[in-house]
């Protein structure tokens, strides 16, 4: 039975390679050793068992190690140890006889890290078909038009259409109307990796904007650049803001330290009409270590008696708090009519977190299922968050210092917001988890590569399928039934440890002791919705039979129920 | 509203002084005596970050401290949840926890000895329901300020006698009994017990009624005995009862001495004292400073761990009853503190009846009121300083906390809501209800009788807390009902055919029956010999591995968890670290910084309630047309709770408490962020991309 299920999945994913081993023990940290078979395809690793199926996409594997050697004696001490990117480890015990381990290890290593072996990523092999083409969800021009752009103060620039100005930016940029293409080129010389300040979002009423960029190249000598200074002042002028606020996401000390490598921050005397605020968010290395600590306390077993203090010692939620409170400050500034510029060092990690979260707070469109996809496509994918480096898709170098859970941290922040405002988001928790799963899965092209220019060169849009194709072809399971659209409201979450909580359904989902049931509220609500529909239908039928009844025989009573009906139809 | 710049230093003086006559006060309880009154003071509001305030008058009666604002009350959003006895600016005297005086910017705890001292410039009152009031006395004439300060301090800090408790003057003048809509079984008569025995199909019989008088000590008014036992002299009652239990052939018996395995009531008191401090927040700065180490602070108080231990113990007892078919005798020195907690929890886990509103109230009556929990001493209603023999301890609150954990984990299993539990915990400190005023049923009857004689009138009529209409109108009471509660009838239809014989047998063991009767030393000899006798039968595990009891019940929990969840069957709590939560509604409701405007769980419960009432309207419509076939079914839908929440989108997370009028749409921006992160290793100072060099231009 289970094998047929397995086979069905093979076909579905167009299996190019498969390997089956019959005598494998999966050492489950919760249920002890389970005997079973292993199926490895170029997409996934499976161990079907009568009660239990382990199903792991190969690309989620970050590290494979051999455990035990020829001289290993103890039970189940010889096998493979697999570390995954999604908060779990797998351990398989194998028979020492034969060379089964060598084979399995070899194949796993090859297909889990295809890029290190000159093989293509799975997304390029998969030929899944969906009703909708997810690549159409984000069209930059449409999105800017939705925001009311261009207008008399802001223009669309095609200066980067061949990635000539900045190779990590998208082709279409929105810049101040008053700034010429030549100005932009000169500003680019003063910004790290030429990531000049460009518009992310504009407030429809007060015309305040969120700009994003990288750090200025001030350096040890405290260099200044008149063009950059003038450019920021043009941004300030655009809506008559008396003072432009620059949010530097980094801690003050780090910003200072960056001067040594040529970077830095906007000095007070150089930028007269700007105020600089540091948001104290730490760098990618700190975040990586924090998540590592978190994994230690939740997998395989949850720390019990000192849960809270061990959670605190990971600092994970404190980092979440800092990111959220930074975004709150940005959103608050903008909604009170002041334009802001947000940057960190390169403007693709912390900057993306801050701008996208602030936009989520300010603009209810991004809280819809499709709007959120646009937000991700825009602020993260098109503006060059380095997904390939941060996740390490298909790359064997598990200790790469560039890897960091920045996007996961952002999704966690979004989850914290959905938790605090359960009616404000059209998508549900399941949607966020699916997004995170496919962040690693390599089944879709959406999160592959570091920036648009590289994506173009690999023809990602034509050769792979978008994650949004899967999502938008059947949205029911991703929709939050409590969603109540409310357009004008700015959502300010409370960035206090009192309200922040660990996302148990994601980080501890592999632990069977944590019950993963559909939330009873949601279930009851859906039941009631169904009941309401049933009653309405019944009433309609009654109304229908009444009217026929009335035409056939003139009963005097027939009029009164009809009144009820008309009265009742209005609320629905 | 007058603003008070710089913490009260340089502000516009109030241009007028308003004296409010008692008659203006509303809602005034006409049996209150006014003692101190008429002092213009400034009450600081916590509504936003600035230290603003409202001018008004501070009054002190024999029931409450009351602040009457000079401002005409704003047309605020209709307050749905109003307590009829005291308003948002009233503090029942019994509810006052501590009073602080601010002298030259320094906060000092006011004790009895300090009354003669100089009057403080600011008075801060911490309440037992976790409200914090700050009154600035600098605008008041000095002798007035002194008078009101001393009056309040005197009323709140002096030990009192039981006779002076407000309940008696209330009972003496209150109107005849308010009708109870849903009767709570009070367990104060033999009939109630008989009824309960019938309900649980207990193999027990009820013994005589009068022995409690004879011994004049706290005992069950009516107690239950196993059937083989004959009525007789009360000497050796204990021994014979236990023998009878032990020798009942059906079950074996295990003994659990709670004093050996659970924290003492002093530990509980200490832990709660530490715990509550973190919710009594004077200002925004304190709030954000304490936010930094929030989790470890919470953990260090040990309060959540005590809750876990109690639930853990209850699960162990359930395991014995359910899995091993063994009777359990739980005991502790007085048998009326943790015994009450554990036995009530066990019954909630085993018996869905106790998860209904009336069932739960009956349970509290049975296990706590009839079970002689010393409410008067434990709540320290009389401010007795002699901690030795009155040791105060929030044992009942601990029980409510445990129940809350169950409610939030298995919401559809409970008919009552979180709000109900919060209100119940507040009501402990409202000195009107007989429920929480006495140490025993005996004390209640004798005191009431004496009081009635003293007042030369008929029997005093002291309401039980279950007469909710004394505090809330019908609309507000709807919030006590959990809209998620899964209908018993509906469920039954699905599983009607499933034989439940085994479970019935388990239900027939109300552990109350086996609870050791209380009072120090009284039965000591008997219990000692019995302990010896039973020691051999003890579950070795309880004794052998006191350090890892969690592991022991883990398997039991996991087996239960693997079965499909039946909200009307056995219910066990998950005790893993992340599952134990803070009772946010109770503890955070008055803190403005944590209020989520338009969010929080209430946002969805109110939508649910709205839909429920729509469905009910439709059902009614269909019923009216009398074409609906299944009449029996139509009776199932309960009256619509929370019909009041049509305008729900602007409710805050602290609903239905803390009505915020001054909603500035400003977010709370955390301060003191950086020192929170003790990231000092080399990683923090590293560059994001170390391996790439930024091109210098």
UniProtKB/TrEMBL annotation, chain A:
Q: Where does this chain mainly localize? A: membrane
Spell out the catalytic residues. Answer: 344 (phosphocysteine intermediate)
One GO MF term: phosphatidylinositol-3-phosphate phosphatase activity
Instruction: Write down the InterPro entries for this protein, in alphabetical order.
Output: GRAM (IPR004182), Myotubularin (IPR030564), Myotubularin-like_Pase_dom (IPR010569), PH-like_dom_sf (IPR011993), Prot-tyrosine_phosphatase-like (IPR029021), Tyr_Pase_AS (IPR016130), Tyr_Pase_cat (IPR003595), Tyr_Pase_dom (IPR000387)
In terms of domain of life, where is this protein from?
Answer: Eukaryota
Residues annotated for substrate binding in this entry: 283-284, 344-350
Its BP terms in the Gene Ontology are: mitochondrion distribution; muscle cell cellular homeostasis; negative regulation of autophagosome assembly; phosphatidylinositol dephosphorylation
Give the EC number(s) listed in the UniProt record: 3.1.3.95
Q: What range(s) does the Tyrosine specific protein phosphatases domain occupy?
A: 314-360
Output the Pfam families linked to this UniProt entry: GRAM (PF02893), Myotub-related (PF06602)
Instruction: State the GO CC annotations.
Output: filopodium; late endosome; plasma membrane; ruffle; sarcomere
Myotubularin phosphatase domain: which residues?
A: 134-507
- The entry's keywords: Cell membrane, Cell projection, Cytoplasm, Endosome, Hydrolase, Lipid metabolism, Membrane, Protein phosphatase, Signal
Task: Identify its protein family.
Answer: Belongs to the protein-tyrosine phosphatase family. Non-receptor class myotubularin subfamily.
The name on file for this protein is Myotubularin
Q: From which source organism is this entry? A: Pygocentrus nattereri
At the highest ranks, the source species' classification is:
Eukaryota, Metazoa, Chordata, Craniata, Vertebrata
From TrEMBL, chain B:
**All residue ranges annotated as the Myotubularin phosphatase domain in the record:** 171-514
| Listed SUPFAM superfamilies | (Phosphotyrosine protein) phosphatases II, PH domain-like
- PROSITE patterns recorded: PPASE_MYOTUBULARIN
GO BP term (any one): phosphatidylinositol dephosphorylation
Q: Does the keyword field hold Cytoplasm?
A: yes
GO CC, sorted alphabetically, is: membrane; sarcomere; sarcoplasmic reticulum
Where is this gene product found? Cytoplasm, Myofibril, Sarcomere; Sarcoplasmic reticulum
| Cytoplasm keyword on record | yes
* UniProt keyword annotations, A-Z: Cytoplasm, Sarcoplasmic reticulum
* Family to which the UniProt record says this protein belongs: Belongs to the protein-tyrosine phosphatase family. Non-receptor class myotubularin subfamily.
| Record-given protein name | Myotubularin-related protein 12
- Organism from which the protein derives: Pygocentrus nattereri
